[in-house]
Amino acid sequence: MKIIFILLLGLLIIVPPAFGAPIADKTGLKFSFPINVDGNAFTIEGTANFDVKRLDFDRDSKKINLKIDSSLEENLMEIIVPKNLLEGDHLAFMITSIPTSVTQTSQLTINMMPVTPKMIHYGENEIFTTLEFVGIGTHYLSVSGSPSPDSFELVDELDYDVNNANVDSIEAIPKQSSLIITLSEVTDDGELLITLKNIITPFDDETFYVLVNDEETDYVFDDGVMTIQFDSQTETIEIIGTHVIPEFAEIAPIVLATSLIGIIALRRYKN
Predict the structure, then answer these.
(1) 41-147+250-270 domain in CATH 3.40.50?
(2) Where are the alpha helices (H) located in 15-120, listed in sequence order?
(3) Per the confidence metrics, is the pTM higher than 0.85?
(4) How far is it, in rounded angstroms, from Cα 127 to Cα 245?
């Protein structure tokens, strides 16, 4: 009898339960979609904590459209896009969401908004991007490309604090992978604190190259905030990384270009 009891106890310990804890939100579901364009084979692949149901590629506008079904409020995706598939290396992401259910008394509303990459890395042939967005239900993610602008102004978009000087401009230059901060009315040695918001990616060793009046200087970078010391003769501060993400550029053309997705989603939802 004791032997039978010991064997039963061993089975309870060794055999895993059929219905265990729910799958974690961060569990990854892999997806891979082949695309053939003019005889050239490409593959869009990645991992997400939701189900990517379908991929459509618009050959005329060179835009990727992904249909997503999510049962989670917090959605996370890692996606790899071949460089030569879209027009330009500047990737723009728009998410179109429709509600999970509609009653006769409720109003169908479709939400469309840009998604800012949490991280983007440019390899030799591919672009790796991490995206986060919220909402349970059906979503349509549009990925389009365009040439990066020569420069754009971020002085009203980034958070910063400076003493003994004024910040006149914060110019992002994608082709140089740098931010140039112009100071004025510098009265004494001072300090600049600037929140980069992932607008510029560091080098492989997670460092940046910082110049004060074209001379390399030390800095402190902690939790997305960079602290730079400067002297009373400083006119410009330059932060150099591996890539500048023009995420704060004009998005009106993107909204116009992706409005068709909302119409298609609405029609399919009604059907």
Answers:
(1) no
(2) none
(3) no
(4) 12
The class that CATH gives domain 152-244 is: mainly beta
Nearest-angstrom CA–CA distance, 158 and 170:
8
The Cα 177–Cα 18 span in angstroms is 52
In terms of Cβ atoms closer than 10 Å to its own Cβ (0-12, 13-18, 19+), residue 238 is buried
219-222 sheet: strands from edge to edge: 160-162, 190-195, 225-230, 219-222
Q: Nearest CA to 252 among 128, 138, 114?
A: 114
30, 77 contact by CB (below 8 A): no
Task: Find out whether 47 and 78 touch, Cβ atoms under 8 Å.
Answer: yes
Give dist(CA 140, CA 46) in Å, integer: 16
Q: Starting at the edge strand that comes first in sequence, how are the strands of the sheet with 63-70 ordered?
A: 51-58, 63-70, 137-146, 90-98, 111-114
Parse the chain into domains and list their residue ranges: 41-147+250-270, 152-244
Instruction: Name the nearest CA neighbour of 200 among 145, 161, 240, 164.
Output: 240
Q: How many residues does the chain have?
A: 271
DSSP 156: T
Q: Which residues pair with 79 in a beta bridge?
A: 46, 129
pLDDT tens-digit profile of 10-32? 443 333 333 333 333 455 799 99
Contact 95, 113 (CB under 8 A): yes
User: Tokens 């001072």 appear where?
Assistant: 190
pLDDT tens figures, 137-187: 899 999 988 776 678 888 888 899 999 999 999 998 887 889 999 999 999
Instruction: Output Rg (C-alpha) for the chain, integer angstroms.
Output: 24
Which H helix or E strand runs over 132?
A: strand 126-134
> DSSP letter at 257?
H
Q: Is-contact 78 48, C-beta < 8 A?
A: yes
